[in-house]
Amino acid sequence: MSTKVVRAWVFLAILTLGAAIGLACGSQAAETIVVEKQVPVEVVVETETEVIQTITKEITALDAVFQVYSWYPPFMPGTVGMVKELYEVEGIKVSPLESRGGADSIRVLQTTAAKFGTSATIAAIAAMQAGEPLMIIGSMAPRGSAAWQVVRGPNHPLGESPITMATVPKGVKITASRPGSQSEQMAFVTADRAGLVEGEWELIHSGGVSANIALLDEGVIDIGFAPGVPAFAGNVASGHWRILLSWDEIEWWLDSVQVAKLSTINENPEWIQAFWKGTCAAKNWMIENEDSDELVSILMMQTGTDEEGRAEAKFIIDQLMDDSDGRGPQYRWGDFKLDLDNVRANLQKNVEFGNIKAVPGNLDEFFLQEFHPATC
Hints:
By secondary structure, the protein is α/β, with parallel strands linked by helices.
C-alpha cells in the first residue's frame, strides 16, 4: 500500500473564553466564541483515504490597555504578537484598548475588564502611591523611543521657526498632552536642555496628540511633540516640520511601564507569563523579518496608514530596527524587564523638573518582574 504526504488546508476551531468589556465593578458574564481558522497541515494519504484530526484549543480572551496605541511604534512587539497570533500560541488572545496617555491609562485599566496595560511611569507610580491595587510587571518599551520634539519647518505655511536647541528663547510655549504623560516629561527635558528654569517657559496641556499638532500648525505654541508614526515622518520629510530633539537621544528616558491589576497577579499569573512569552516571540519575529514588507504593513495597520504612506512606515521600521549604534531591538526591548537604577534616574529627573516630590523610598515594592521567560 503506497503512502504519501501532501499539504492540505483544514479548519482549526479555536474556543475563545473571556469576559466582555465592562465596568470593573459590574458583572462580567463569560462569553464563548468559536473562531474557525485555516492552517496548513501535513495529511497522510493511504490509498486515497484522507486521515484528518479535528484540533481544538481553549484560548482566554484578555483586554490590555495600550496608551496612545495607534500613535506609538515602540509597542510594535505587542501589535506583531496580536497580528501573528503569537499570544494565541501561549493560550491567550490579547485585544487592545487605547487610552490617551498619562493618568487616562490608569483610568481605563481600572474601569474596564482589562487585566493589564501600559502607562506613563510617573502616572503609574502616583496611582500606586494613592493606593490603587496595581503592580509594575515590566515595560513594552524599556529603552529608547520613537518620537520627536518638533518646530515649524522650512516649508510650513507660517514660515520656519527660528528655534534651535541652542537658541530656545525665554517665554517659549511647549505643549504636552496631559499631566503625568510622556510628552509632559519631554517638555521639561526640552526646557532643561535649553537652560530654561521655572517661570522662563510655558507648559500648555493640549489634551492629546491631534490637538497638540493643531496648536503647533496654527502658531499657538512654539514646540510640539510628534510620535514617530508615518504621517508625522512625512511631515518631517516634506519640511513641514523640523526635528528639534529626538526622544531617542535621552539616555535615561523610559517611555512606559506595563502595569497589572493585583487581582490578575493573584488569580491568573499564567496570563501575564503567557503575555510576556508571546511578546518575546513577537520581538524575535521582528528581528527575523526586519526587512520584510509584512512588518511594514503591520505598522501601517497599527497606525492607520494608507498605501501612500508605505515609504514613511518603512522609515519608522528602519529607525526601530537599526542596530548600527547599538540601539537596535535587543537594546530597545531586550527581555522587557526594567532596570530599577534606570527607573530611579528617570524619577530623579522628574523630581528636578517638579513633576513629583521625591523618588519613593519603597520603589522596589511597586515592581514584580518574575513573569518573564528565562530567554527572550
